[in-house]
Amino acid sequence: MALPGSLNRYLLLMAQEHLEFRLPEIKSLLSLFGGQFTNSQETYGKSPFWILSIPSEDIARNLMKRTVCAKSIFELWGHGKSPEELYTSLKNYPVEKMVPFLHSESTYKIKIHTFNKTLTQEEKVKRIDALEFLPFEGKVNLKKPQHVFSVLEDYGLDPNCIPERPHNIYFGRWIADGQRELIESYSVKKRHFIGNTSMDAGLSFIMANHAKVKENDVVFDPFVGTGGLLIASAHFGAYVCGTDIDYNTVHGLGKASRKNQKWRGPDENIRANLRQYGLEKFYLDVLVSDASKPSWRKGTYFDAIITDPPYGIRESTRRSGSQKQIPKGIEKCPESHVPVSLSYHLSDMFFDLLNFAAETLELGGRLVYWLPVYTPEYTEEMVPWHPCLKLISNCEQKLSSHTARRLITMEKVKDFENRDQYSHLLSDHFLPYQGHNSFREKYFSGVTKRIAKEEKSSQD
């Protein structure tokens, strides 16, 4: 378990949800605050216990001010596979590093945390008493201690096969907790203005972290919907703006998405959502605009583009067009605020998005978006590619037995040139990805098959 001696060792206690998103989030935040995630650092796959080497406690604290995937971080003083190994490890930890937190003027308490097992109070006290060999000189204070120490025991991931003894035991000084409470305080259930596809609060914050959003950034969402992704970015101090083709959504008009509410109220809009959380000062504006025909002058405007494009399931994939492009035999549509909308192939949508990001992102800026996939046919070659953008991470969230969506994070690594606009046509990635234009049909065919299967089994 050798780690670079110049760096302090920390123990991260991770949340047990969105497992694939955890590592990219921690890597992104470490690089944002001046740390670096190296291969010598240890992560335990699905385990909630990760050992990291981080240059300073300040970076560790900054990391925890942002992460929603981690619960807590501890300065690691010792660990082992058994109590004896833990005690030996603690005896080898430099005393000079302990002394500032154990002197006679200090107050402290020791907590016991177990994963996948519950201990009795008697068992917890026994574990605390066994640490008497540590040079504690301060007073115990259970209510408001200056320093909190924790024994953390890992009993594995299988709740049906809990071992008698833990797989690993850790001891460390608590540094800070993560931002898990944001998931509840920003919950869509309590939000003023929502739509059919409003993004889950936890995932919104994860996306903002993958994008390395920071104070005074300008963040853009080309498929803004009800603005959930703008809210997460604004929470971290970024100025936010967006576009959407749907006039009613942008202006907060039309039918409500909430149960038992027919029409949207007079103040149900994106600005009101930011106002609800005290973030209105970060709201630049939202425009009715077609993502397939960007109305921006050439230039780099954005530090991050974060978006959840429509997949054609609960929200249609549309772009604006002219009456000439509509097949004969269809009645002329009445005039409205939204131009005539045509179907917008997923492959075209994502390549337009990548080109737009390559043109408008600052160098080093990130694009974070969701890519829907039909699982039986998915390969990594189907992820859209662009010469100006480097793939940083690709995480799966399952939607059903046969579909998923992948959170794609890309970083702009080179300035955009005109010849880059059509480079995807030369890429091997282009043809396989066109298969996703039928994602909607495949999604609903799978739903139909599942319903038929369930009906058949119920009849049997």
From TrEMBL:
<keyword id="KW-0819">tRNA processing</keyword>
<comment type="subunit">
    <text>Part of the heterodimeric TRMT11-TRM112 methyltransferase complex; this complex forms an active tRNA methyltransferase, where TRMT112 acts as an activator of the catalytic subunit TRMT11.</text>
</comment>
<dbReference type="Pfam" id="PF01170">
    <property type="entry name" value="UPF0020"/>
</dbReference>
<keyword id="KW-0949">S-adenosyl-L-methionine</keyword>
<dbReference type="InterPro" id="IPR000241">
    <property type="entry name" value="RlmKL-like_Mtase"/>
</dbReference>
<dbReference type="Pfam" id="PF25904">
    <property type="entry name" value="Tmrp11_N"/>
</dbReference>
<protein>
    <recommendedName>
        <fullName>tRNA (guanine(10)-N(2))-methyltransferase TRMT11</fullName>
        <ecNumber>2.1.1.214</ecNumber>
    </recommendedName>
</protein>
<keyword id="KW-0820">tRNA-binding</keyword>
<dbReference type="InterPro" id="IPR029063">
    <property type="entry name" value="SAM-dependent_MTases_sf"/>
</dbReference>
<dbReference type="GO" id="GO:0043528">
    <property type="term" value="C:tRNA (m2G10) methyltransferase complex"/>
</dbReference>
<keyword id="KW-0489">Methyltransferase</keyword>
<feature type="domain" description="Ribosomal RNA large subunit methyltransferase K/L-like methyltransferase">
    <location>
        <begin position="190"/>
        <end position="320"/>
    </location>
</feature>
<dbReference type="GO" id="GO:0160102">
    <property type="term" value="F:tRNA (guanine(10)-N2)-methyltransferase activity"/>
</dbReference>
<dbReference type="GO" id="GO:0005737">
    <property type="term" value="C:cytoplasm"/>
</dbReference>
<dbReference type="GO" id="GO:0000049">
    <property type="term" value="F:tRNA binding"/>
</dbReference>
<keyword id="KW-0694">RNA-binding</keyword>
<comment type="function">
    <text>Catalytic subunit of the TRMT11-TRM112 methyltransferase complex, that specifically mediates the S-adenosyl-L-methionine-dependent N(2)-methylation of guanosine nucleotide at position 10 (m2G10) in tRNAs. This is one of the major tRNA (guanine-N(2))-methyltransferases.</text>
</comment>
<comment type="similarity">
    <text>Belongs to the class I-like SAM-binding methyltransferase superfamily. TRM11 methyltransferase family.</text>
</comment>
<keyword id="KW-0808">Transferase</keyword>
<dbReference type="InterPro" id="IPR002052">
    <property type="entry name" value="DNA_methylase_N6_adenine_CS"/>
</dbReference>
<keyword id="KW-0963">Cytoplasm</keyword>
<dbReference type="GO" id="GO:0008033">
    <property type="term" value="P:tRNA processing"/>
</dbReference>
<dbReference type="InterPro" id="IPR059073">
    <property type="entry name" value="TRMT11_N"/>
</dbReference>
<feature type="domain" description="tRNA (guanine(10)-N(2))-methyltransferase TRMT11 N-terminal">
    <location>
        <begin position="9"/>
        <end position="180"/>
    </location>
</feature>
<dbReference type="GO" id="GO:0032259">
    <property type="term" value="P:methylation"/>
</dbReference>
<dbReference type="InterPro" id="IPR016691">
    <property type="entry name" value="TRMT11"/>
</dbReference>
